[in-house]
Queue: 2 jobs
Job 1
Amino acid sequence: MSEIVIIDSGQLALSLRLPELGMPEILSFGAEPVEADPLFEIERSSRVNGMDIAVPSNVLLPTGGMGFFGWPAIAGHRGGRDFVAQFGGWTVIRDGNQTVLKAVDSVARLGIAITLTAHDSGLISMATALSNLGEADYQLDRCMAATFLAPAGDVQVMSFTGIWGREFQTRRELLGNGTWIQESRRGRTSHDRFPMLFIESETQIFGVTLGFSGNHQMVIDRTDDGQRLVHLGELFEPGEIILAPGESYHSPIAYAGADSQDFHAFVRDELTQWPGGKMSPRPVTLNTWEGNYFDHQMDSLKAQATAAAELGIERFVLDDGWFGKRDNDTTSLGDWDIDARKYPDGLKPLVDHVTGLGMQFGIWFEPEMVNPVSELYKAHPDWALTIEGRPVLESRTQLVLDLTRPEVSDYLFGKIDAVLSNHAVSYIKWDMNRDLTHAAGRDGKAKTAAQTRAVYGLMDRIRAAHPNVEIESCASGGGRIDYGALKRTHRVWTSDCTDALERLEIQRGASVFVPPEILGSHISASPNHQTGRRHTIAFRALVAIAYHLGVELNPLELTDEERDELKVYIETYKRLRDLFHAPGASFRMEPLDGRYVWGAASAEKIVVIVAQGPQMVGEQPAPLRLPDHVTQFGGQWRIKTVLPAGPQFIRISEGQKALLSGAVTFALSSAGLSGLPLPMLTPESALLLELEPIKGGKTHG
């Protein structure tokens, strides 16, 4: 009987049969593993004009060319030969929760190793390594990291699209008979094609994501029997991956999970490497960008820091404009020396002032880019990624530095290291503000894949030299949010758009795969700098408060009334952040008639945030039915706190007033069955409800 290999995370199980020749056959992928059975040995016959020997179509990483007519997950050649791969002689190596499947193609002289891991969080991950065992170069055109199996029948895919300032817009579509493909060629995760999907059928729901920040492919291919193979992997430029004899290609890691909570748990427990081994409470951050832009004046910045500390802010981040002769975004990227015009005594007086107030100090870098108007480019124009004879294409007046060259990476490390070594810096905002185009090295060959890995290498080097410094991944906002970047960073800037109305959808989408404490969300000025909309402090604060809260304005420009109100929300965040960011506590609900609902829950406290985006169409809002995993705490509860004190309701009944004042106690189960009859909010307003259990009552069951 064939060998059966089971990868079981407790939430998902992948069951494989290893053939004598060919790729591992997927027997099942779902909640339950299979057991060895004679049924799995029965060959499946095809139509009369099909292959005489049955060829399984539901396999890991199908290679094509030997009776498999679907989309090949592995493709390449050796000077036009060895274009067909057929692996055999499978061996299984187990080490704890990790399983490695190895095989060889003795004809094409290739070796393969597929690493499968069952994670404690419930995720299953997969990665592929392909080795050239021959004596001549092998051009690898495609090598997916992973394949997962989706059931037959009606299957819906949820993907994410967007643009700058409107990231993580969810899209749902029903899969047809053809092949579904999403590809990104931007050289970064992108704003429009995130490598994240949720697959939903009548019998199964699961999500997949690729942990990689460069070009990617996600393909869903229909098999002969109506099921679907979901492939994830890196997208290569032509001729980008050529393996010399003895060389190997190692794919990124792809992940599959049953639900958002499992993905969140993986990010928290395994992926994110915190200084000291444990996440500290996420500090309230003041970022100086929208409050100052390039206008850096020492006295004003010190005064802003003092005002920030008085508001309860815990981290001060000096954004773009502190280096070179950086008075606008057309100059000085690459010249990472402190601007003596703005800082005649260096940065130390500002850093000392900030840390003396008890705050952490952070600073902005964009290491991967260079302005043509810079001392660095003047000295080393050959350090930029370009193709000889082609136009030098700028984006945001920037070019991309070739980090694959050791001298470039060493230069950048030296400049960043000097700032971190000579100042009490706790945090880097690491930005990347342009896509990669015709990215080639001096030899004219594509460098996108190597560039992505070189960025990782520089990040890893900085982390090793300064292990107590946290890094935020920013790429024109949310352009580099993926599990490859998150392995090396501690926060992402979710979007450059700080408009609270836009953030409702952006943050809802991003939180499918990323836990709230990782997603930066700031209270910015009104009118908003990106959209011109005007919103109350209450709306701006409540939309941001459940995530990693920050402030994006000049605190000296606030009125006394605004300062007092902002301080209330900062204090509320500090009081509730342990709950907002607790493992398994957060929840979010699908928007209903323009109403967005999210929050966090424990047996001791439930926090519900309700935000009305567009105006409701219904005559009355539907009662707010809390999710099952919130109501499972049971018992009698009441509303203890409402923020703001005077929410913007269109109309409110006496009974609703009693409910919100805490005069009404109710069974938590009823809040799930019939729901909370809340008043209708005016458009673009919000409220926060704190629910507490009635002491002495039943709180479980």
Job 2
Amino acid sequence: MFDSKAFLARLTQRPGVYQMQDAAGELLYIGKAKNLKKRVSSYFRATGLTVKTQALVSHIADIDVTVTNSETEALLLEQNLIKEYRPPYNILLRDDKSYPYIFISEKEDYPVLTFHRGTKRKKGRYFGPFPSRAAVNDSLNILQKIFRIRSCDNAFFRNRSRPCLQYQIKRCSAPCVEAVSAEAYAEDIRHASMFLEGKSRTIMKELATQMEAAAASLDFERAVIYRDQISSLQLIQEQQYVFGDSGDADVMGCAMQPGGVCVHVLFVRGGRIVGSKALHPKVSVEDSESTVLSAFIAQWYIGNTREIPDQVICSHDLEDQDCLEEALSERRGKKIHLSSRVKAERAGWQKLALTNAEQHLSSHLASKQNIYKRFLSLQEVFGLDEVPKRLECFDISHTSGEATVASCVVFDRNGPLKKDYRTFNIEGITGGDDYAAMHQALMRRYTRIKKGEGVLPDILLIDGGKGQVTQAVKVLEELQITEVQIIGVAKGASRKAGFETLIMAENNEEVVLASDSAALHLIQHIRDEAHRFAITGHRARRGKARNQSKLEGISGVGPKRRRELLKHFGGIPAIERASVEEIAKVTTISPALADEIYAALHPEV
């Protein structure tokens, strides 16, 4: 039993970080405080604690304290510790991937405009971040349509002798064949950059002047191009219903209801909303929108490597606003404004973020309740002792035996657990042998789980008939896993949705549920998700295999030599027809390497 009175009696009032642990020494919660004694004492007061906080306190066996020089320093340390240990009672974000940007290259006669994600190593300008690939693609489509800037990679660009399809559909001005001058193209690049900076009105004024000048000089063809660009920009402005003249901001709305929380983030760049994202963070101790937002903002920016905009606008006042503002400013190296009391366009963004958070949360809770009802129905249909907590489903995908991939998708009582999804590239089997593929995937998956690298499901669903189910039974028997129920999901005689036959591995019995059964709907949902995920993995693997150059994998032939070979011969077929002597004529290829390249391209010789 943790002696809170004795602990609090000697606790300092300085700022710092506290780490609560259970009897096994496992971390339960990490927090920061301006006054450690005052903050930690609040957990042990007699009244006013939420149910979740009471549950946390009941498990505390020890508390470690780290004193810091300031509250800001404590906040930075707290986020580093949360990121490393991910304690169960802290607010945790599943979405920790990097966000995409639009990239415009530099120091080229004809710069490229393209999608970018990851480290910013290339020389050029980066615009963003955008909330998703789809948001980037939308902007790229607009820019290509209005300004006709190339998006192809440099290898494709340098080896063109005539314009590609993008030129034919008026999405590119064909700089690859110099159909546009470098000066005119540079002007289009400048306008595209201004558009991404939110300066559409300035662009339209410039284009109007240029249109008048072109018309005055009787260059009506050029005047028509300017007119169309102005019309397109005007249409985009009309569609952008919330618009400001300038400024970058992330606008965060938070909504709470019993059972869930939603934080909706609007991304405003150059005064224009470029996208949004709804997140449902796991919340344990936070009991108000203000505390949720404080924890969310700290983890969103400090616990990850996201770009911090000039402003962060919140739907609610934050108690530790000054501390967060100082930490974010220190992180970016520039003053950041964090506010909740805003006017004009910013008030409109704020209201929009909050409205979206409320709507997403209502939909999310309704969906969770519906999924839980389906789990209850599954328990009832199969006579289980308790409601299942975890389901896994496997499926196999290939094209005539090529690039076989197995998928594993996972559902819990809240729906899909996408972070636990897995794909398996199947190797070493006869092409098209679905039974062997299923056996390999299941063996790899559950061998890892037996080693402690995952959690066993309550029910294992197999997309297939008795043959696939037999493989599942063999694998689990071999691994001595007895607590998992295996069910096959086979297409019925009509092969239509709603008429599936369920194969119970326990007694080899076939069960057909009513088409309106909530349990069947759950099984169909996870089966369809496994099918979708398997096809996605298969297509990616097949595409990679088909797109791989035959020159890759040849020892001594790196990217530079591959480019030289392709530039010299014009393509793989010509290299395959070339003799050893002809290959050796490429400046970077020695006679010995030419012999190796020839042998690799003609293994039958």
